[in-house]
Amino acid sequence: MISRLENLPNGVIGFEASGKISAEDYRDAVLPALTHAAEAGEVRFLLVVRDFDGMSGGALWEDLKVGAEHLRKWKRIALVTDIEWMAHVTSLFGWMTPGETKTFPLADRDRALAWAAG
Fold first, then answer.
1. Transmembrane residues, as ranges (predicted)?
2. What angle is formed at CA 112 by the lines to CA 49 and CA 26, rounded to 5 degrees?
3. How distant, in Å, are the alpha carbons of 45, 55, 64, 92, 117 from that of 19?
4. Distance separating alpha carbons of residues 31 and 15, to the nearest angstrom
5. d(Cα 72, Cα 92) in Å, to the nearest integer?
6. DSSP secondary structure string for all residues of 65-99
7. Which pLDDT tens digit goes with each residue over 97-112?
8. For burial by CB atoms within 10 Å, which of 28, 96, 104, 107 has the most?
């Protein structure tokens, strides 16, 4: 499930993901916010992941499309998680994502938000 985070600084969109992620999560929550942010300018993205039980095949496809559709609009992606393998994969392959990517532990959510907004 993905839910939108509210009360973020102007220009930052944020979500909290937990459990199993579905294609509907992307379609209903992420894509409308991302399209709006891209139309307004740059995409500054905060993603908080407390627990993760995988993604459906449709969700994986939507995730790949999310990055490609607005390729030049991505500015910063802050991943906030204590899931070690996720942080490790992001540090290894972050260069492949559009924009700048940085990982933060859950305790540093406010610092991650400030970085994404900066």
1. none
2. 40
3. 20, 9, 19, 24, 27
4. 11
5. 21
6. HHHHHTGGGEEEEEEEE--HHHHHHHHHHGGGSSS
7. 667 889 999 999 999 9
8. 104
Residue with tokens 């938000």: 113
Q: Which residues pair with residue 76 across a beta bridge?
A: 44, 100
Going along the chain from its start, the domains and CATH numbers come out as: 2-113 (3.30.750)
Calculate the CA 62 to chain-centre distance. 13
Return d(Cα 36, Cα 34) in angstroms, integer.
5
Please say whether the beta carbons of 8 and 113 come within 8 A: yes
| CA separation for the pair 55, 83 (Å, rounded) | 15
Residue 66 has a CB neighbour count (10 Å cut-off) of 18
C-alpha span between 54 and 51 (Å, rounded): 9
10 secondary structure, DSSP code: T
pLDDT tens readout for residues 17-75: 998 888 788 788 888 888 888 888 888 999 999 988 766 655 555 665 565 565 667 78
